[in-house]
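Consider the tokenized backbone below.
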């Protein structure tokens, strides 16, 4: 008799806990609903940003296998001559196999220009896409609200992690009722909204956790402080003679000597208030599409600073360095990029069905 009473009491406590968790899940989900919808939709559109640019703006353009720093250096000199005198600095991205064009981003207004890798003439076809992608990116990363928008997205990402884990706990009691028709319904029925919601979320939980966690970590590091302090850069004993009078091509060639196995990605040339040249590199086999290794040449003394190589840092720092490719799919295998897209669609679907179900329940 006592044993039966104890079991019954335990079941009541278990049901009360589940009801409380469900209540928190619903109300916190409602709080984050709009922001998760926006982040998921914009993220899906950005997943294939590079492919869209290649298909619509630079169709049929490929980078020759023989193209390298020897060809980049004189082209960089031409680009430097064009932007010289502009009061705003530029972030210059060198061509690579996935982006066979020079990319110039103006600091003042974030205006983007694509230059042909061979002639350095601006690509003029379908430039509306660049404006659309810039709009979507700003929505995805800061909700057009700067730091405030980033903070909202960080809170929404953390809430999304709670929703994903609490949703699994809630679903677990009904796991035996899992059917593929709840995940891929042949015919949509509003009566089954919660079935679609719970079973889709449970199935896609791993990739949802990766997307939400990596996005939250990147925002956290940007808004507060890095989870791990990166290794300090190394001041190399070698300096570049006459660095102040050197050309952009000579700066690039000298920087390349410090990372001979790297591919130049982002390049910062001297600008008003910035008396230095910085070249960022992607190392062989590195997931991050822009790399995490950089060389800085200070002007006018030519002193050289090399960041810790991405392939030589400790494993925790390497893991932190993979946040961006794991979150976006950039630089990753095409199969993983497809999984990221499906994860974004699922996050949008879960937000939509969860919000819709809540509204139907309370009206």
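A designed sequence for it:
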């Amino acid at each position: 008799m006592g044993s039966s009473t104890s079991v019954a009491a335990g079941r009541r406590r278990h049901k009360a806990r589940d009801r409380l968790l469900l209540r928190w899940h619903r109300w916190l989900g409602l709080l984050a609903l709009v922001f998760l919808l926006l982040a998921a939709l914009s993220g899906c559109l950005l997943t294939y940003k590079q492919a869209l640019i290649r298909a619509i703006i630079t169709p049929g353009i490929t980078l020759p296998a023989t193209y390298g720093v020897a060809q980049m250096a004189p082209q960089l000199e031409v680009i430097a001559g064009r932007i010289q005198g502009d009061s705003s600095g530029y972030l210059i991205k060198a061509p690579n196999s996935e982006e066979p064009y020079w990319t110039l981003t103006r600091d003042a207004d974030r205006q983007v220009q694509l230059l042909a890798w061979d002639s350095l003439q601006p690509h003029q076809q379908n430039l509306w896409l660049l404006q659309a992608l810039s709009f979507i990116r700003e929505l995805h990363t800061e909700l057009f609200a700067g730091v405030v928008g980033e903070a909202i997205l960080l809170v929404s990402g953390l809430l999304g992690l709670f929703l994903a884990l609490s949703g699994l706990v809630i679903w677990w009691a009904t796991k035996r009722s899992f059917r593929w028709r709840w995940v891929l319904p042949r015919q949509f029925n509003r009566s089954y909204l919660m079935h679609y919601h719970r079973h889709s979320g449970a199935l896609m939980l791993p990739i949802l956790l990766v997307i939400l966690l990596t996005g939250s970590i990147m925002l956290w590091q940007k808004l507060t402080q890095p989870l791990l302090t990166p290794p300090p850069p190394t001041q190399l004993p070698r300096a570049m003679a006459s660095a102040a009078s050197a050309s952009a091509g000579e700066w690039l060639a000298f920087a390349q000597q410090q990372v001979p196995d790297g591919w130049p990605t982002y390049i910062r040339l001297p600008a008003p208030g910035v008396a230095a040249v910085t070249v960022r590199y992607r190392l062989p086999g590195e997931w991050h599409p822009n790399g995490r290794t950089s060389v800085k040449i200070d002007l006018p003394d030519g002193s050289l600073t090399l960041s810790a190589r991405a392939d030589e840092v400790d494993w925790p720092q390497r893991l932190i360095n993979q946040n961006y490719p794991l979150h976006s799919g950039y630089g990753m295998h095409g199969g993983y990029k497809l999984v990221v897209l499906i994860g974004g669609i699922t996050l949008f679907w879960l937000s939509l069905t969860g919000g819709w179900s809540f509204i139907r329940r309370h009206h």
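The radius of gyration is 25 Å.
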